Automatic annotation (TrEMBL):
The protein, known as: DUF2207 domain-containing protein
Highest taxon of source: Bacteria
Annotated keywords: Membrane, Signal, Transmembrane, Transmembrane helix
Gene source species: Nonomuraea zeae
Residue ranges of coiled coil: none
Extent of the signal sequence: 1-25
TM region positions: 212-233, 381-401, 407-426
InterPro entries tied to this protein: DUF2207 (IPR018702), YciQ-like_C (IPR048389)
Length: 535
């Protein structure tokens, strides 16, 4: 008997242990009873009853999955009761929760397939889940998968009732973040539900090159670039003047210098390249010296000293006869002083250079060579081009994100870039300006032809000196400096010119090197100022 009792006790303990094990397992997670009903309109109504929860329950619903190579499938959740939905996170506030799902139905072959992640994304383990599915027709097939979202492992059980109108699924021990996916097939047309698809963004798809996009891109580029060409032809093209306008030029009248059309060096520089830049200012300084408004005194220096020049104001000069841009430069140089070293031209000189540039632009308009200020014209069209580039970039991003026509936005970017660059060529000369330019080019050819004609010896220094500022504009300083240094005013070699004085032991044989260094240094000093830094 004792042995029998011991055996029975052992069996009872074993049975108690076996019956207690499920209770322990149940306490390790929640129980989720899910009832799903598919309506005729394709909306899936879901009711979940949860038990065994020990804290706040949250569930991250799956609202997007991959459908095919180019699309994602969306599931839209609405009409939440018993909880709150923030984004795709559902927070349960009671013992049950219900909601509607749209997009859970799709047609596959001859079957209408319902697919939903009945249990997924809980922040705790699900010890046991049961799912009942009712639909608008008889069940044609069913399947279920448990584990990770892409798992192909079947659930614990899947069955249907004897009338094939209800499908039942069960699964135990679903870990956090894992899912129980149920799939039920109904006859095609049982509901009007359709999948909700959203095109997936990819650079390859966004910038698809095919017959349609390629043709549209080519057509748009042709239209835009053709329009820019027409714009330049009508607005930016100089009023052309026949080549014979240049003609023969003789700037010597009665032994005195007379430039074609009375054009001065700074005006020529702005007329030729349509910009008021450093070389125009440098040439004007030399021209003011040659014409007797100031004198340039080269300063003595040691071997390693930087070269420097003293600009001396001549009190007898008729300042009132200066053009506005010349007067602005003259005042910027001296600023109330009688003399100033070139190396000390800073401060007020830099601040006045903007006025010089503005006056030069205003002068070429006043002369009738341009209808509008060249700098304003360039800025306007370049700004429009930059704006068009910005619009094109926005259009490219929008078209690439929402369509496959991203290439069309690039056409606007290309056109904007062409306009931004082409804006530099938009200033157009008038007929008068084109004629003046033709005469100027004729003067340049004359200047470098070497045929200087018969110039009386007593006029050569003055005449050839008057050529020098124009040579600065035409980049011929070296040549004309040597010409000036080779002449005399009275038949004898001179140590200085009336407008340029060198230091002791300096003579005209060194003038060419001195002048080359002076123009280079002056241009460097001017270009270092803010107003001319970018020109």
């Amino acid at each position: 008997m004792t042995g029998f009792r011991l055996t029975m006790a052992t069996l009872a303990a074993t049975a108690l242990t076996l019956t207690a094990a499920p209770a322990v397992a149940a306490e390790a997670g929640i129980t989720d009873e899910v009832t799903m009903t598919l309506g005729k309109d394709g909306t899936l109504h879901v009711v979940e009853k949860i038990s065994g929860a020990s804290g706040q329950l949250k569930r991250t619903l799956i609202t997007r999955t991959r459908y095919d190579d180019g699309n994602d499938r969306l599931y839209r959740i609405s009409n939440v009761k018993g909880g709150t939905l923030a984004g795709d996170v559902l927070t349960v506030t009671g013992q049950s929760v219900e909601y509607d799902v749209k997009g859970a139905v799709t047609t596959s072959g001859g079957v209408e397939e319902l697919r939903w992640f009945a249990v997924s994304g809980w922040n705790t383990e699900v010890a046991k889940a049961t799912v009942k599915v009712n639909g608008p027709g008889q069940v044609q097939n069913l399947s279920c998968f448990a584990g990770e979202l892409t798992s192909a492992i079947g659930c614990t059980s899947a069955s249907m009732d004897h009338s094939a109108t209800q499908a039942d699924f069960e699964q135990e021990n679903i870990a956090q973040g894992q899912a129980l996916t149920v799939v039920v097939g109904y006859p095609k047309g049982s509901s009007s539900g359709t999948p909700i698809l959203e095109k997936r963004f990819s650079l390859a798809a966004a910038f698809t090159l095919n017959t349609v996009t390629g043709g549209a891109l080519a057509g748009l580029l042709l239209l835009l670039l053709g329009g820019l060409g027409l714009l330049y032809w009508t607005r930016g093209r100089d009023a052309r003047v026949a080549g014979h306008e240049s003609g023969s030029v003789d700037p010597v009248q009665n032994g005195h210098f007379s430039p074609p059309d009375g054009v001065r060096p700074g005006q020529i520089g702005t007329l030729v390249d349509e910009q008021a830049d450093v070389v125009d200012v440098t040439a004007t300084i030399v021209d003011l010296a040659v014409r007797g408004y100031l004198r340039i005194d080269e300063q003595p220096r040691q071997t390693y000293d930087a070269p420097d020049w003293l600009l001396v104001r001549l009190p007898s000069a008729p300042v009132n006869a200066l053009l506005p841009y010349e007067l602005a430069l003259y005042q910027a140089i001296f600023d109330g002083r009688d003399a100033v070293l070139l190396s000390q031209l800073s401060g007020s000189f830099a601040s006045h250079l903007g006025k010089v540039r503005d006056a030069l632009y205003a002068d070429v308009v006043k002369q009738g060579w341009f209808a509008r200020r060249p700098d304003t014209e360039r800025t306007r069209w370049t700004t429009i081009g930059v704006i068009l580039i910005g619009v094109g970039l926005v259009a490219t991003v929008a078209l690439a994100w929402f369509t496959t026509y991203g290439l069309l936005g690039l056409a606007l970017v290309i056109a904007g870039g062409a306009l931004a660059v082409g804006g530099q060529y938009m200033p157009a000369k008038t007929a008068k300006g084109s004629a003046a330019l033709a005469h100027t080019m004729g003067f340049r050819d004359y200047l470098f032809s070497g045929e200087l004609g018969e110039v009386p010896e007593q006029h050569r220094v003055e005449l050839f000196s008057r050529y020098l500022p124009y040579a600065v504009i035409f980049d011929g300083v070296e040549h004309w400096s040597r010409v000036v240094a080779s002449v005399t005013g009275n038949g004898h070699q001179s140590d200085n010119l009336y407008w340029y004085h060198g230091p002791a032991e300096w003579d005209l044989s060194k003038f060419a090197g001195s002048m080359r260094t002076f123009t280079t240094t002056t241009s460097g000093a001017i270009s270092a100022t803010r107003q001319f830094r970018t020109l």
